[in-house]
């Protein structure tokens, strides 16, 4: 099956189960202070789960473009290095929104489990012995019960040796500190060869970051509401929220060992390989660079098409960082000294025709923005790399250390436009690191300097520039409401 057919089979299957197929929401989130980018299919239905919006359809399915590069879900460091985490990916999903009283109304664990099994084993024909399922094992400390109901339902279809308990981290989903939550059941596929399987039991590799035993589908059963005092209340209307990684599913069905070997990524990888004159699959370093480029251009293109331009602020800076990361990989490992990434945009637009038409309708604009960004960063990239090399050499010579001084990392950002995570990555490639404490001090000093410089003396009072003109330079690992935003003046 081609990727296109696989996507369509998912949507048609749930349509045949009376689901209403809806379009993907944009990848850029505009009206939610807790989220910058859509990171799961359920985001666009949040108000329904919270009971703050009217339910129009009880059963819904779609493919949602997602981005996981910030906040609670940040997979950026894995991308390209492993072969199954992407920045931008499609999440196929089916939902049930409460209210079993309506015709073709809501459903819960029984139907969700039966249908996910039917789809995977009868429509997609994945051999049953390759599949493992998990259920929530309970958590005594938290007063959470084991999900016996899910276990018993799975037992009708799956051999007990392939039904595994999972902890709160992997198998209990919560929207936040309060609100809807519940146990989940995940489906994992063991794609190893028979020889590999003979060595270790697949069950021990589930949720263990094994590159060939991967999670494909999460089925969340929202049955509780967590109150402010921490206690759990049963929800009057229970919901189902599922998410399946499309690129992972395609890899399983096309019997590949990497998502990048499927027809989702190969056209781009082959184009990059041809233009660089380097074959994919010959060297791990150049392979990673090709994977990163093929991955990152998707994130960049969809974010721009959905209305967020690269900039020095918040979401705009997140996307600029990703773009610069891709440009540096192309420049250093594949010798692309001229702008190149933008040439991938038409390929991508063609690929997503009739799936996400947003890209094709704005193809020229997106390509132009990417080109401009590339031109701008390529002006300082070489000098920045040379500076970085000199500073690393100096710390080796004078301090016998592979730690880049914080001040140098700051200089790289301030003068050459190297985002700190790029400098970190470059230091790591040399087996070193960056003195982050020093970097933060330099950043703070700069902030104070520019604050002082822009303080306007008006006699009886002073006006200090507000953060609106600040440049976003860091983004920590928590959701935006709790994250530490680090600003400096432009
Ligand atoms: P993982 O444990 O592999 O990081 P997850 O548990 O974080 O995945 P969920 O939040 O459960 O993922 O999302 C539902 C599905 O989306 C996953 O089962 C997986 O197939 C897919 N998925 C999650 N993150 C990514 C990603 N970065 N790239 C591609 N697919 C992903
Ligand atoms: Mg994850
Ligand atoms: Mg997981
Ligand atoms: Mg999961």
UniProtKB/TrEMBL annotation:
Catalysed reactions, as listed in the record: tRNA(Ala) + L-alanine + ATP = L-alanyl-tRNA(Ala) + AMP + diphosphate
Domain Alanyl-transfer RNA synthetases family profile: 1-490
Location(s) in or outside the cell: Cytoplasm
Keyword tRNA-binding: yes
Cofactor(s) the protein needs: Zn(2+)
GO MF: alanine-tRNA ligase activity; aminoacyl-tRNA deacylase activity; ATP binding; tRNA binding; zinc ion binding
Keywords: Aminoacyl-tRNA synthetase, ATP-binding, Coiled coil, Cytoplasm, Ligase, Metal-binding, Nucleotide-binding, Protein biosynthesis, RNA-binding, tRNA-binding, Zinc
GO biological process: alanyl-tRNA aminoacylation
EC numbers on record: 6.1.1.7
GO CC term (a single one): cytoplasm
Cofactor note: Binds 1 zinc ion per subunit.
Broad class of enzyme this protein falls into: ligase
The keyword RNA-binding belongs to this UniProt entry's keyword annotation: yes
Functional note: Catalyzes the attachment of alanine to tRNA(Ala) in a two-step reaction: alanine is first activated by ATP to form Ala-AMP and then transferred to the acceptor end of tRNA(Ala). Also edits incorrectly charged Ser-tRNA(Ala) and Gly-tRNA(Ala) via its editing domain.
Domain notes: Consists of three domains; the N-terminal catalytic domain, the editing domain and the C-terminal C-Ala domain. The editing domain removes incorrectly charged amino acids, while the C-Ala domain, along with tRNA(Ala), serves as a bridge to cooperatively bring together the editing and aminoacylation centers thus stimulating deacylation of misacylated tRNAs.
Family: Belongs to the class-II aminoacyl-tRNA synthetase family.
Name of protein: Alanine--tRNA ligase
The species this protein was found in: Pedobacter terrae
